[in-house]
Amino acid sequence: MDKRGQDLFPYGFAPAPTKESFLMRISTLHRRIIAALSLLPTLAATVSAQVLDLGTLGTYPAGANALNSSGEVAGFYTDAGGASQAFRYKQGDGMQSLGDLNGTATATAYGINASGVIVGQAGAVGGTEAFRWTSGGGMQSLGTLGGANSVAYAVNDSGTIVGRSEINSSSDRGAFSWINDTRTALGTLDESNFSEARGISASGVIVGSSVNARGDRRAVRFSGGTAID
């Protein structure tokens, strides 16, 4: 309708397009085709991307659990006897076994920082223990908070390690941090019997999960010896 409320095209038909409007439409279509064609190299690169098989030092299954900014990978492979073994993969060097604790012959790597420090879990006498591995010092046990088992999941670039440990013989499990040979319990929600730390930021913020008084497992942040829901 026009400003007076009358139909501009009372018979329902617009006037035939002019030569100018037709050429404008052709020009618009041309620009859209050019823009679409410009995306083809990106699409081709995406389609041609490949999955790189890191291999194994034994048999399978094997898996990569963590990657640092230098492209180093940490994970596990299965040895000829069927046991899990921790590895580091570095471009040019290939896959390297990280060894074990006390000849127990089982280990899995879960985290790696920018310096190549790797953390995880290895078999130990009477249980499993969190470990820290460096290229200069090999595998080092981080111990437990009093129970038989512990595991380390992450390490930041400052070297602080976080994970989970059994606290006592009743198998209560609690989140912990480790730095410079000192383990610290991080607490739980509602003084429950379970928490674990799964990640730590560059600034030292630690996150994970904990069970509350109702038995619900909740996502948490740890601060000051307690879990915050």
Give a nutshell description of this structure.
This protein has helices spanning 19-38, 40-48, and strands at residues 59-67, 73-78, 84-90, 94-97, 107-112, 118-124, 127-134, 138-141, 150-155, 161-166, 173-179, 182-187, 195-200, 206-211, 217-223, 226-228. The chain is mainly beta.
Question: What descriptors fit this protein?
Answer:
single chain; 229 residues; mainly beta; four-stranded antiparallel sheet; globular; disordered N terminus
Question: What's the layout of helices and strands?
Answer:
Blueprint: H1 19-38, H2 40-48, E1 59-67, E2 73-78, E3 84-90, E4 94-97, E5 107-112, E6 118-124, E7 127-134, E8 138-141, E9 150-155, E10 161-166, E11 173-179, E12 182-187, E13 195-200, E14 206-211, E15 217-223, E16 226-228
Antiparallel strand pairs: 1-2, 2-3, 3-4, 5-6, 6-7, 7-8, 9-10, 10-11, 11-12, 13-14, 14-15, 15-16
Report on this model:
With about 230 residues, the protein is mainly β. It is about 15% helix and about 45% strand. It is built from two helices and 16 strands. It has a four-stranded antiparallel beta sheet with strand order 1-2-3-4, with no helix packed on it. A four-stranded antiparallel beta sheet has the order 5-6-7-8, with no helix packed on it. A four-stranded antiparallel beta sheet has the order 9-10-11-12, with no helix packed on it. It starts with 18 loop residues before the first helix and ends with a strand.
